[in-house]
Write a structure and sequence with these properties.
This protein is mainly alpha-helical. 75% of the residues lie in helices and 1% in strands. A two-stranded antiparallel ribbon has the order 1-2. Strand 1 and strand 2 form a beta hairpin. Helix 6 packs across helix 7.
Length: 304
């Protein structure tokens, strides 16, 4: 007969076995305080990540530098006035601006100029983007249109004002037309350059994956060209504001350019400065809106 263990030995084995099971987890068991092998500690959100905090610090630093630059520029302006330069002081310009705003003349002229800029600028963008895409995507279209685009780019839009007045009259038509031309030429070149600058590797990879030309154009070319289009819009916006002032000098009844011309006749330098400040502020605000649109539409790009 085989020897059987005594009752104490049996009891000891029964007591030690569960203890060993409790203290030695299986190799693939999750660690204490974890579920499914993932710790309970929440991952840092995007808003509290180090990169987000660093971006906020950089943004505040840039804002402070911009404010310091603004204050410094006004300070230099004031110093030039104290040194005897024939310039109105910032206080005099502010006072004149408040006076014109209370009389309503400033808002009337500002709205007239802004309306012309928006009309000509937006018409130029709407016309330029399809033309730029066609020039960049189809070589025959590029061969036909590129000489004409480059030809008219060499002619200042202001030089076309007399011809536009002869052909379109002295109403709003010639002023909006020259603004349209300035915006169109800047935007069509940028859009065309964006299409031809698309990485050929991306296009070839899409073809290998079976994408058709229409899909490649919409999913590869258009997104890759968007930054160029927005840069062209910013350049076209500056050209539109530069053109509207000169266009309003000819046969215009209102507008910031017209008010500045009248102020020149009476040597009202403070009124001229009010017009310059309004144009600068409006142009800066519109440019910031385009930068915001660029950030939203091209979030996939790396930025410094």
């Amino acid at each position: 007969m085989t020897d059987r263990p005594t009752s104490r030995e049996s009891t000891g084995d029964a007591m030690t076995t569960p203890a060993t099971t409790r203290t030695t987890p299986p190799p693939d068991a999750p660690a204490p305080g974890a579920t499914g092998g993932v710790t309970d500690a929440p991952a840092p959100s995007r808003a509290t990540s180090p990169a987000a905090r660093r971006a906020r610090r950089d943004g505040r630093a840039r804002l402070l530098v911009s404010l310091a630059s603004l204050v410094g520029g006004i300070g230099v302006w004031w110093v030039l006035c104290l040194l005897g330069f024939q310039l109105p002081t910032p206080a005099a310009v502010l006072s004149r601006g408040v006076e014109l705003a209370l009389s309503g003349a400033l808002w009337t002229d500002t709205w007239a100029s802004l309306r012309r800029v928006l009309a000509g600028f937006l018409l130029g963008v709407v016309a330029a983007v399809p033309v730029g895409f066609l020039m960049g995507w189809y070589a025959p279209v590029r061969a036909v249109l590129d000489p004409w685009i480059q030809f008219f780019r060499m002619i200042p839009p202001l030089a076309i004002i007399p011809l536009a007045i002869v052909l379109l009259g002295i109403d709003e038509g010639p002023r909006i037309f020259v603004i349209f031309l300035a915006s169109f030429l800047a935007n069509v070149v940028s859009t065309y350059q964006g299409v031809v600058s698309v990485d050929r590797t991306l296009i070839n990879a899409a073809r290998v994956l079976g994408a058709k030309d229409g899909t490649i154009f919409l999913r590869v070319v258009v997104p890759a060209s968007t930054p160029f289009i927005l840069v062209g819009m910013r350049i076209g916006l500056g050209a539109a504001w530069a053109t509207v002032v000169a266009a309003e000098l000819i046969a215009a009844q209102d507008g910031l350019g017209r008010s500045m011309q009248k102020a020149q006749l009476y040597y009202q330098i403070d009124t001229i400065f009010v017009g310059l400040v309004m144009i600068g502020l409006l142009g800066l605000a519109m440019d910031r809106l385009l930068l915001l649109a660029e950030k939203k539409l091209t979030g996939w790009r790396e930025r410094r």
